[in-house]
Amino acid sequence: MDITEYLQIAFAEYEQRLLASALQATAIALNSTLDLNEVLNLILVHIGSILEFGAICIMVANDNVAYAARSHGDCLRLSFADPLALERPMADAPLLTHLLEAPGPLLIEDMDSAPAWFVKAEAQGMRAYLGVALQTNKKPIGFLHLLARHPFNREHAERLHAFAAQSALALNQRDAVSAWAAGGRGRRTGSGRADKPAG
User: Chain-wide mean pLDDT for the chain?
Assistant: First the structure.
């Protein structure tokens, strides 16, 4: 084994240790609160420890409808025929139905060559898409959508898959999705996030 190969292996092992540590920290954080809004905020914060991206949208699913619950950057328009909509029946959104049926994350390296059913983002400079459904026992819990200026790859998809599994468990365990949606489904704030309405 030459020095280059040795360094590549050592770096890969280091990356795996960092990922494991980040996922462990994420699991601890997600299970530290029973408040759904806090869980959503923690997902938004901790996903940045395992993936670099330019925009993100976290969606919550309830009664076959998906709600945009948190976002950073211009990512909302990905999931809807109407880019101004904040909620959408999942059966009417090809991207969402594809994510629910897919065995893992959907990776699109260049959105200019995306399938016809993919609602292309118009976010400035964004090139790649990576998304995954949050599910437990095939029950839809929500969705994660990420955009980036740089191409995503298979390693990024695997990282997102692991993160999504933890996020789905955290959301499902609280059994709070229905209460959040029934309470008004959320309203956008100046930060581009949707929070549970007061009162």
Answer: 76
3 state SS of 36: helix
CA dist list (Å): 92 to 2, 56, 66, 163, 199: 54, 21, 10, 26, 31
| Mean pLDDT, residues 48-52 taken together | 88
Report d(CA 192, CA 169) in Å as an integer. 25
CA angle 70-130-21, nearest 5°?
A: 75
Q: What is the CA radius of gyration of the chain?
A: 17
Residues 181 and 63 sit within 8 Å (Cβ to Cβ) = yes
Spatial neighbors of 173 by CB under 8 A, at least 6 apart, are: 31
Would you state the structure tokens that stand for residue 113, as one six-digit string? 């060559």
Q: Which CATH superfamily is domain 3-186 in?
A: GAF domain (3.30.450.40)
pTM: 0.76
Mean pLDDT of 161-186: 70
Nearest-angstrom CA–CA distance, 94 and 102: 12
DSSP 161: H
- Structure tokens of 46? 């901790």
Query: Where along the chain do its domains lie?
Result: 3-186
Side chain identity at 25, as an amino acid letter?
A
H helix or E strand, kind and range, residue 13 = helix 3-30
Q: What is the pLDDT of residue 81?
A: 39
Residue 17 has pLDDT above 80, yes or no: no
